[in-house]
Write a structure and sequence with these properties.
The protein is an alpha+beta fold and 344 residues long. Helix content is 51%, strand content 10%.
Length: 344
Protein backbone atom coordinates (compact mmCIF):
# COMPACT_ATOMS: atom_id res chain seq x y z
CA UNK A 1 0.00 0.00 0.00
CA UNK A 2 2.53 1.96 0.72
CA UNK A 3 5.95 3.22 -0.06
CA UNK A 4 6.99 6.62 -1.35
CA UNK A 5 4.46 6.28 -4.19
CA UNK A 6 1.77 5.10 -1.81
CA UNK A 7 -0.68 7.86 -2.64
CA UNK A 8 -1.04 6.50 -6.19
CA UNK A 9 0.14 2.88 -6.30
CA UNK A 10 -0.08 -0.33 -4.30
CA UNK A 11 2.70 -2.90 -3.87
CA UNK A 12 2.04 -6.18 -5.71
CA UNK A 13 2.51 -8.21 -2.52
CA UNK A 14 -0.69 -6.69 -1.13
CA UNK A 15 -2.63 -7.55 -4.29
CA UNK A 16 -1.57 -11.19 -3.98
CA UNK A 17 -2.32 -11.27 -0.24
CA UNK A 18 -5.79 -9.79 -0.76
CA UNK A 19 -6.63 -12.73 -3.03
CA UNK A 20 -5.66 -15.52 -0.61
CA UNK A 21 -9.26 -15.97 0.53
CA UNK A 22 -10.48 -16.24 -3.07
CA UNK A 23 -7.80 -18.79 -3.89
CA UNK A 24 -8.69 -20.83 -0.80
CA UNK A 25 -12.24 -21.05 -2.13
CA UNK A 26 -11.05 -21.96 -5.65
CA UNK A 27 -12.33 -18.66 -7.00
CA UNK A 28 -11.39 -17.24 -10.39
CA UNK A 29 -8.53 -14.93 -9.44
CA UNK A 30 -7.73 -14.06 -13.05
CA UNK A 31 -11.27 -12.89 -13.75
CA UNK A 32 -11.25 -10.63 -10.68
CA UNK A 33 -7.93 -9.10 -11.70
CA UNK A 34 -9.26 -8.50 -15.21
CA UNK A 35 -12.41 -6.83 -13.89
CA UNK A 36 -10.32 -4.63 -11.60
CA UNK A 37 -8.01 -3.65 -14.45
CA UNK A 38 -4.91 -5.26 -12.92
CA UNK A 39 -2.32 -7.14 -14.97
CA UNK A 40 -2.33 -10.85 -14.08
CA UNK A 41 1.47 -10.74 -14.13
CA UNK A 42 1.36 -9.35 -10.59
CA UNK A 43 0.66 -12.87 -9.32
CA UNK A 44 4.14 -13.92 -10.49
CA UNK A 45 6.01 -10.66 -9.94
CA UNK A 46 5.08 -9.02 -6.67
CA UNK A 47 7.54 -6.20 -7.30
CA UNK A 48 5.02 -4.75 -9.72
CA UNK A 49 2.87 -1.90 -8.45
CA UNK A 50 -0.73 -1.25 -9.42
CA UNK A 51 -2.86 1.92 -9.39
CA UNK A 52 -4.58 2.52 -6.07
CA UNK A 53 -7.94 2.92 -7.85
CA UNK A 54 -7.57 -0.53 -9.42
CA UNK A 55 -6.68 -2.04 -6.05
CA UNK A 56 -9.77 -0.45 -4.52
CA UNK A 57 -11.91 -1.99 -7.29
CA UNK A 58 -10.33 -5.37 -6.57
CA UNK A 59 -11.15 -5.16 -2.85
CA UNK A 60 -14.77 -4.28 -3.65
CA UNK A 61 -14.99 -7.16 -6.15
CA UNK A 62 -13.59 -9.66 -3.64
CA UNK A 63 -15.96 -8.40 -0.96
CA UNK A 64 -19.00 -8.72 -3.21
CA UNK A 65 -17.93 -12.09 -4.67
CA UNK A 66 -17.43 -13.65 -1.24
CA UNK A 67 -20.08 -11.55 0.54
CA UNK A 68 -17.50 -11.01 3.23
CA UNK A 69 -15.92 -7.75 4.42
CA UNK A 70 -13.03 -9.86 5.76
CA UNK A 71 -12.30 -11.01 2.17
CA UNK A 72 -12.41 -14.68 3.07
CA UNK A 73 -9.35 -14.29 5.32
CA UNK A 74 -11.04 -15.20 8.61
CA UNK A 75 -12.79 -18.25 10.02
CA UNK A 76 -16.04 -16.34 10.29
CA UNK A 77 -17.17 -13.98 7.51
CA UNK A 78 -18.18 -10.40 8.25
CA UNK A 79 -21.46 -9.40 6.55
CA UNK A 80 -21.20 -6.77 3.83
CA UNK A 81 -22.43 -3.48 5.28
CA UNK A 82 -21.14 -4.16 8.81
CA UNK A 83 -18.52 -1.41 8.67
CA UNK A 84 -21.09 1.15 7.54
CA UNK A 85 -23.44 0.13 10.37
CA UNK A 86 -20.60 0.43 12.87
CA UNK A 87 -19.88 3.96 11.63
CA UNK A 88 -23.55 4.92 12.03
CA UNK A 89 -23.61 3.42 15.53
CA UNK A 90 -20.64 5.55 16.60
CA UNK A 91 -21.90 8.88 15.28
CA UNK A 92 -23.69 9.74 18.53
CA UNK A 93 -20.51 9.30 20.61
CA UNK A 94 -19.06 12.45 22.12
CA UNK A 95 -15.37 11.43 22.21
CA UNK A 96 -13.07 9.07 20.34
CA UNK A 97 -12.74 6.96 23.49
CA UNK A 98 -16.49 6.36 23.53
CA UNK A 99 -16.47 5.64 19.79
CA UNK A 100 -13.72 3.02 20.12
CA UNK A 101 -15.54 1.32 23.00
CA UNK A 102 -18.70 1.19 20.89
CA UNK A 103 -16.70 -0.10 17.92
CA UNK A 104 -15.32 -2.90 20.10
CA UNK A 105 -18.81 -3.79 21.32
CA UNK A 106 -20.22 -3.73 17.79
CA UNK A 107 -17.48 -5.98 16.44
CA UNK A 108 -18.10 -8.53 19.21
CA UNK A 109 -21.72 -8.80 18.04
CA UNK A 110 -20.79 -9.23 14.38
CA UNK A 111 -17.99 -11.80 14.60
CA UNK A 112 -16.31 -14.07 17.11
CA UNK A 113 -13.11 -14.58 15.13
CA UNK A 114 -11.83 -11.03 15.76
CA UNK A 115 -11.57 -9.50 19.22
CA UNK A 116 -10.60 -5.92 19.99
CA UNK A 117 -9.68 -4.65 23.44
CA UNK A 118 -8.59 -1.28 24.77
CA UNK A 119 -6.22 -0.74 27.68
CA UNK A 120 -5.33 2.72 28.95
CA UNK A 121 -2.75 3.89 31.45
CA UNK A 122 -1.77 7.42 32.45
CA UNK A 123 -0.51 8.58 29.06
CA UNK A 124 -0.77 5.67 26.61
CA UNK A 125 -3.44 3.54 24.99
CA UNK A 126 -2.93 -0.04 23.83
CA UNK A 127 -5.52 -1.20 21.27
CA UNK A 128 -5.10 -4.96 20.85
CA UNK A 129 -6.46 -7.09 18.02
CA UNK A 130 -6.72 -10.87 18.37
CA UNK A 131 -7.66 -12.99 15.35
CA UNK A 132 -8.57 -16.65 15.13
CA UNK A 133 -7.40 -17.41 11.64
CA UNK A 134 -8.54 -20.21 9.39
CA UNK A 135 -6.09 -23.12 9.31
CA UNK A 136 -3.49 -22.80 6.58
CA UNK A 137 -4.57 -19.30 5.54
CA UNK A 138 -2.22 -16.32 5.79
CA UNK A 139 -4.17 -13.61 7.62
CA UNK A 140 -1.56 -10.86 7.74
CA UNK A 141 -3.26 -8.76 5.07
CA UNK A 142 -6.53 -8.80 7.02
CA UNK A 143 -4.75 -7.71 10.21
CA UNK A 144 -2.81 -4.98 8.41
CA UNK A 145 -6.00 -3.72 6.77
CA UNK A 146 -7.99 -3.71 10.00
CA UNK A 147 -5.27 -1.80 11.83
CA UNK A 148 -4.89 0.80 9.08
CA UNK A 149 -8.68 1.18 8.85
CA UNK A 150 -9.00 1.67 12.60
CA UNK A 151 -6.34 4.39 12.66
CA UNK A 152 -7.69 6.23 9.64
CA UNK A 153 -11.33 5.97 10.71
CA UNK A 154 -10.36 7.24 14.17
CA UNK A 155 -8.39 10.11 12.63
CA UNK A 156 -11.39 11.02 10.49
CA UNK A 157 -13.77 10.92 13.46
CA UNK A 158 -11.80 13.58 15.36
CA UNK A 159 -10.35 15.33 12.28
CA UNK A 160 -6.83 14.92 13.66
CA UNK A 161 -4.00 12.77 12.39
CA UNK A 162 -3.37 10.10 15.03
CA UNK A 163 0.37 9.61 15.50
CA UNK A 164 1.26 6.06 16.48
CA UNK A 165 4.01 5.45 19.01
CA UNK A 166 4.52 1.76 18.28
CA UNK A 167 2.89 -1.26 16.66
CA UNK A 168 3.43 -4.85 17.78
CA UNK A 169 2.63 -7.71 15.41
CA UNK A 170 1.89 -11.30 16.40
CA UNK A 171 3.60 -12.68 13.31
CA UNK A 172 7.04 -12.88 11.72
CA UNK A 173 8.66 -9.92 10.04
CA UNK A 174 7.37 -9.97 6.44
CA UNK A 175 9.46 -9.73 3.30
CA UNK A 176 7.82 -6.36 2.62
CA UNK A 177 9.17 -4.89 5.87
CA UNK A 178 10.12 -1.64 4.12
CA UNK A 179 6.48 -1.02 3.23
CA UNK A 180 5.65 -1.00 6.94
CA UNK A 181 7.72 2.15 7.42
CA UNK A 182 5.09 3.91 5.30
CA UNK A 183 1.97 2.13 6.54
CA UNK A 184 3.01 2.42 10.18
CA UNK A 185 5.63 5.22 10.43
CA UNK A 186 6.69 4.32 13.95
CA UNK A 187 8.55 1.58 15.78
CA UNK A 188 7.32 -1.83 14.57
CA UNK A 189 8.05 -5.04 16.47
CA UNK A 190 7.32 -8.56 15.22
CA UNK A 191 6.82 -11.98 16.82
CA UNK A 192 5.03 -10.41 19.78
CA UNK A 193 2.38 -12.12 21.86
CA UNK A 194 -0.39 -9.91 20.48
CA UNK A 195 -0.98 -7.39 17.72
CA UNK A 196 -1.30 -3.97 19.37
CA UNK A 197 -1.41 -0.30 18.41
CA UNK A 198 0.11 2.14 20.92
CA UNK A 199 -0.73 5.86 20.90
CA UNK A 200 -1.19 8.79 23.27
CA UNK A 201 -4.20 8.56 25.58
CA UNK A 202 -4.87 12.26 24.89
CA UNK A 203 -6.64 11.24 21.68
CA UNK A 204 -9.37 9.40 23.61
CA UNK A 205 -10.77 12.65 25.00
CA UNK A 206 -10.78 14.34 21.58
CA UNK A 207 -14.35 15.21 20.53
CA UNK A 208 -16.04 13.46 17.62
CA UNK A 209 -16.58 16.23 15.06
CA UNK A 210 -18.18 14.30 12.20
CA UNK A 211 -21.89 14.46 11.41
CA UNK A 212 -24.34 12.23 9.47
CA UNK A 213 -23.83 14.34 6.35
CA UNK A 214 -20.04 13.96 6.42
CA UNK A 215 -20.47 10.25 7.20
CA UNK A 216 -22.44 9.80 3.99
CA UNK A 217 -19.55 11.25 2.01
CA UNK A 218 -17.00 9.22 3.98
CA UNK A 219 -18.78 5.92 3.28
CA UNK A 220 -19.20 6.81 -0.39
CA UNK A 221 -15.42 7.01 -0.66
CA UNK A 222 -14.72 3.78 1.27
CA UNK A 223 -12.62 1.70 1.09
CA UNK A 224 -10.32 3.97 -0.95
CA UNK A 225 -10.11 6.52 1.86
CA UNK A 226 -9.10 3.76 4.29
CA UNK A 227 -6.32 2.49 2.03
CA UNK A 228 -4.61 5.81 1.57
CA UNK A 229 -3.49 8.45 4.00
CA UNK A 230 -6.52 9.99 5.73
CA UNK A 231 -5.14 13.37 4.78
CA UNK A 232 -1.77 15.00 4.44
CA UNK A 233 0.02 14.40 7.71
CA UNK A 234 0.48 17.94 8.96
CA UNK A 235 1.23 16.91 12.53
CA UNK A 236 4.17 18.66 14.15
CA UNK A 237 6.04 15.38 14.58
CA UNK A 238 5.63 14.58 10.87
CA UNK A 239 6.93 18.03 9.88
CA UNK A 240 9.97 17.58 12.12
CA UNK A 241 10.63 14.08 10.80
CA UNK A 242 10.46 15.30 7.21
CA UNK A 243 12.88 18.11 8.04
CA UNK A 244 15.37 15.77 9.73
CA UNK A 245 15.18 13.19 6.94
CA UNK A 246 16.78 15.68 4.57
CA UNK A 247 19.72 16.41 6.87
CA UNK A 248 22.91 14.62 7.82
CA UNK A 249 23.11 13.65 11.53
CA UNK A 250 25.75 16.30 12.16
CA UNK A 251 23.26 18.87 10.91
CA UNK A 252 20.39 17.83 13.21
CA UNK A 253 19.22 21.03 14.97
CA UNK A 254 18.77 21.44 18.70
CA UNK A 255 15.29 21.37 20.16
CA UNK A 256 15.23 25.16 20.48
CA UNK A 257 16.38 25.53 16.87
CA UNK A 258 13.66 23.22 15.54
CA UNK A 259 11.11 25.17 17.61
CA UNK A 260 12.33 28.38 15.96
CA UNK A 261 12.07 26.75 12.51
CA UNK A 262 8.43 25.93 13.28
CA UNK A 263 7.83 29.47 14.63
CA UNK A 264 6.89 28.01 18.02
CA UNK A 265 8.26 28.63 21.48
CA UNK A 266 10.06 25.60 23.01
CA UNK A 267 7.34 25.09 25.68
CA UNK A 268 4.62 25.22 22.99
CA UNK A 269 6.48 22.71 20.80
CA UNK A 270 7.02 20.42 23.78
CA UNK A 271 3.31 20.55 24.57
CA UNK A 272 2.30 19.96 20.94
CA UNK A 273 4.57 16.92 20.69
CA UNK A 274 3.23 15.54 23.96
CA UNK A 275 -0.33 15.89 22.63
CA UNK A 276 0.74 13.78 19.63
CA UNK A 277 2.37 11.20 21.88
CA UNK A 278 5.81 12.10 20.57
CA UNK A 279 9.07 13.67 21.69
CA UNK A 280 11.99 15.26 19.85
CA UNK A 281 14.36 12.57 21.10
CA UNK A 282 11.96 9.88 19.90
CA UNK A 283 11.75 11.47 16.44
CA UNK A 284 15.55 11.70 16.24
CA UNK A 285 15.79 8.01 17.16
CA UNK A 286 13.19 7.07 14.53
CA UNK A 287 15.09 8.93 11.79
CA UNK A 288 18.37 7.30 12.83
CA UNK A 289 16.71 3.88 12.99
CA UNK A 290 15.22 4.18 9.51
CA UNK A 291 18.53 5.38 8.09
CA UNK A 292 20.35 2.48 9.72
CA UNK A 293 17.85 -0.04 8.34
CA UNK A 294 18.18 1.52 4.88
CA UNK A 295 21.96 1.03 4.84
CA UNK A 296 21.92 -2.40 6.49
CA UNK A 297 19.44 -3.79 3.97
CA UNK A 298 20.78 -2.22 0.77
CA UNK A 299 24.58 -2.38 0.76
CA UNK A 300 27.59 -4.05 2.29
CA UNK A 301 28.96 -1.11 4.24
CA UNK A 302 30.65 -2.17 7.48
CA UNK A 303 28.52 -1.71 10.57
CA UNK A 304 31.06 0.81 11.90
CA UNK A 305 30.55 2.98 8.80
CA UNK A 306 26.77 2.77 9.16
CA UNK A 307 27.12 3.83 12.80
CA UNK A 308 28.90 6.96 11.63
CA UNK A 309 26.35 7.63 8.89
CA UNK A 310 23.54 7.49 11.44
CA UNK A 311 25.21 9.91 13.84
CA UNK A 312 26.94 7.65 16.37
CA UNK A 313 30.52 8.39 17.33
CA UNK A 314 31.11 4.88 18.66
CA UNK A 315 29.97 1.57 17.05
CA UNK A 316 29.25 0.16 20.52
CA UNK A 317 26.73 2.93 21.18
CA UNK A 318 25.11 2.24 17.81
CA UNK A 319 24.88 -1.49 18.64
CA UNK A 320 23.08 -0.76 21.90
CA UNK A 321 20.68 1.72 20.29
CA UNK A 322 19.86 -0.55 17.35
CA UNK A 323 19.17 -3.50 19.64
CA UNK A 324 16.84 -1.29 21.68
CA UNK A 325 14.98 -0.29 18.48
CA UNK A 326 14.68 -3.72 16.85
CA UNK A 327 15.56 -6.36 19.43
CA UNK A 328 18.61 -7.40 17.34
CA UNK A 329 22.17 -6.18 16.93
CA UNK A 330 22.96 -4.63 13.51
CA UNK A 331 24.90 -7.72 12.45
CA UNK A 332 22.15 -10.11 13.53
CA UNK A 333 19.53 -7.98 11.76
CA UNK A 334 21.53 -7.99 8.51
CA UNK A 335 22.09 -11.74 8.77
CA UNK A 336 18.37 -12.37 9.30
CA UNK A 337 17.55 -10.36 6.17
CA UNK A 338 20.09 -12.35 4.15
CA UNK A 339 18.65 -15.66 5.34
CA UNK A 340 15.13 -14.50 4.48
CA UNK A 341 16.30 -13.38 1.03
CA UNK A 342 17.98 -16.70 0.30
CA UNK A 343 14.94 -18.62 1.54
CA UNK A 344 12.70 -16.52 -0.72
Amino acid sequence: MYNQDSRSTIAGCFVVAALYGVQARQGDVGALLDQAGIDRAVMDDQNLRVPREAFTRLILLIRETLQDEFLGLSQMPCPVGAFAMMCHACMTCETLGQALERCIRFLSLVTHSIELSLRQDEDEVALTLLHERAEGLDDRFLIETLLVSLVRWSSWMIDRHIVLRQVDFAFDEPAHRDEYLQIFPCRCRFNRRATTLFFSSSYLSAPVVQQPLTLKSFLAQAPANLMSHYRHDDSVSALIRKRLSGLEPAEFPTFDAIAGWLHLSPPTLRRRLKDEGASYRGILDAVRRDRAIFHLSRNELPVAAIASLTGFAEPSTFHRAFKKWTGLTPGAWRASKQVASEAG
